[in-house]
């Protein structure tokens, strides 16, 4: 059950309350106490004094067996009807505008939340796809570079055996291979000594 401020309970379901004050006892001129028959004769209420509402009429016999939920619904319906009858045209327009504004705000919030979730999903998918693609391309590039290096190394070895001059790239590859072989030989020598 959706609850709003307008639906809030406007009563307390506690023990019975007194709705009017008992007759007051006024001090007469002779310092004797007597119940006042008419309070307006001896004392006047200030003009801003609170006058309590009379108690509500007792419910008909058919409604005396209603459940607390039914009672709450009935009292809310009565209060809503009273409020609707006492509202001016401007109050009705403002109330309806608030309902439209609440609906628009709720729609906007849910739309932004949905857009945020959608953007997060797209970001996660894109990031995963880019990482996978980058790894594939990296593997392809490394395989291609290794093939070019191996081909250059083989042509350098063939050119060196044939006694023809090496190109600059072939010379770099041969120097690198000699350094790798030298480093491996030193490592093996250290392992034998150590």
How does this structure look, described?
The chain is mainly alpha-helical. Helix content is 63%, strand content 3%. It is built from four helices and two strands. It has helices at residues 39-42, 68-86, 89-162, 168-193; strands at 25-27, 33-35. Strands 1-2 form a two-stranded antiparallel sheet. α3 packs across α4 (168-193). The protein is rod-shaped. The protein starts with 24 loop residues before the first strand and ends with a helix. The model is unreliable at 37-42 (pLDDT under 50).
Task: Offer a quick outline of the entry.
By secondary structure, this protein is mostly helical.
**Compute the gyration radius: what is it?**
48 Å
- Average of pLDDT: 81
List how many beta strands DSSP finds. 2
What series of H and E elements makes up the topology? EEHHHH
Low-confidence spans: pLDDT under 50, at least 5 residues?
37-42
Taking the alpha carbons of the first and last residues, their distance comes to: 82 Å
Overall SS class: mainly alpha
Biggest sheet statistics: 2 strands, antiparallel
Summary tags:
4 helices, rod-shaped, 194 residues, single chain
């Amino acid at each position: 059950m959706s609850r709003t401020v307008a639906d809030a309970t406007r009563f307390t379901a506690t023990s019975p309350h007194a709705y009017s004050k008992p007759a007051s006892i006024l001090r007469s001129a002779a310092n004797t106490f007597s119940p006042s028959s008419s309070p307006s004769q001896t004392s006047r209420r200030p003009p801003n004094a609170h006058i309590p509402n009379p108690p509500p009429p007792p419910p008909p016999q058919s409604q005396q067996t209603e459940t607390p939920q039914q009672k709450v619904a009935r009292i809310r319906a009565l209060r809503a009807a009273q409020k609707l009858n006492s509202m001016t045209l401007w109050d009705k327009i403002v109330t309806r505008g608030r309902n439209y504004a609440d609906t628009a705000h709720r729609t906007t919030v849910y739309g932004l939340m949905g857009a945020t979730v959608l953007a997060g999903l797209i970001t996660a998918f894109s990031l995963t796809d880019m990482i996978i693609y980058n790894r594939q391309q990296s593997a392809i590039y490394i395989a291609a570079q290794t093939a070019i290096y191996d081909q250059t190394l083989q042509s350098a070895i063939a050119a060196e055996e044939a006694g023809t001059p090496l190109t600059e790239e072939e010379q770099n590859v041969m120097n690198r291979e000699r350094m790798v072989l030298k480093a491996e030989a030193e490592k093996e020598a250290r392992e034998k000594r150590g």
